[in-house]
From TrEMBL:
Residues 17-40 are annotated as: Disordered. Gene3D superfamilies: 3.30.70.1710. Residues 19-34 have a biased composition (Polar residues). GO terms for molecular function: structural molecule activity. Keywords: Bacterial microcompartment. Signal peptide: none annotated. CDD domains: BMC_PduB_repeat1 (cd07047), BMC_PduB_repeat2 (cd07048). One of its GO terms (cellular component) is bacterial microcompartment. The lineage of its organism: Bacteria, Bacillati, Bacillota, Clostridia, Eubacteriales. It holds the Pfam family BMC. Residues 60-169, 171-285 form the BMC circularly permuted domain. This is Propanediol utilization protein PduB.
Amino acid sequence: MDQEIINKVLEELRKKTNCENSSDTTDKTQNTQNSKSELKEEKIIEKEEKREAFMINDTPVITEYVGCAIGDTVGLVIANIDGSIQEKMNLDPKYRSLGIISARTGAGPHIMAADEAVKATNTVIAAIELPRDTKGGAGHGSLIIFASEDVSDARRAVEVALKDVERTFGDVYGCDAGHAELHYTARASLALEKAYGAPLGKSFGIVVGAPAGVGLVMADTAMKTANVELVTYASPNDGTSHSNEVIISITGDSGAVKQSVIAAREVGIGILKSMGQNPISTTKPYI
C-alpha cells in the first residue's frame, strides 16, 4: 500500500517536471522568435530611415530634381555643368546652368511646353532630341535642354514646362492602333524654331499621325483645308527617329493654321475609329 502511494507521488513529480521543461522550451522558442522578429523590424526601420534620408513624400532630396509630369516626364537642373561635357555639347561658355526635360512618351507636347518656357524665362534652347521610345509605341520620347547663365532661370524654365505639358497633351489622342497628335500656338518661339524651323512670332501648328499612313492623310487634309505654308515634312525614314509617323508643321495666319489643325484632327480620329479603336484625349483638348 505504501509502495503504491510512493509510486503515485513519483508519477506526479515526473509529470510536473516534464511540464516545466516543456514550458521552458516553449519560452525559449518564443524568445528566439521574438528576437528574430525584433531584428527584422530593426532592419526594416533602418532601411526606411535610409530611404527617408533620400526621399521626402516620394520626392528625391537632391538639388538636380525639379519635378515630374505626364508621359514619364522628369524635370532636372544642373547648376554648373562640367566643362568637358559643356565643350562636347558645343555650348557657349557663358551658359553654365542647364534645365532638362526628359520623357519616355511625347515629343510634340514637350516642345510646345518648352516653347512657352523660353517665352517666360531668360533661357535659350541648347538641344532638342527625339529618341525612338514611346515605351514601345509608334512615336518618340524627348530630350530638351535649356541653357542659362543663372541656375534660377534654368530651374524656372523646367518648372514652367512641367506645368504646361499637362495642357499640351490635350490634343494627343491615343489608342492601341496608333495616335493622332495636334499642336497649335499663336506665336512661335525658340523651342519651335529649334525643333522645326518655325518662323519666330508667327502662328504655328503641328500635325502628327500614326501609323504613318494616317499621318499622311492628316497632313494632306491640313494643307488643303486653309491657306497655310508647309514648314517641315517628316516620315519614318526622313526627319524622325524611324518612328511610325508622318509629321508636318505649318505656319500662316492664326485662323488658317488653327482651322487646318482641327480638320486634320477630325480626319485622324475618324480613321483610327474606323480601325475599331476609340482614341481619347490624354488630358483635355485645348485647340
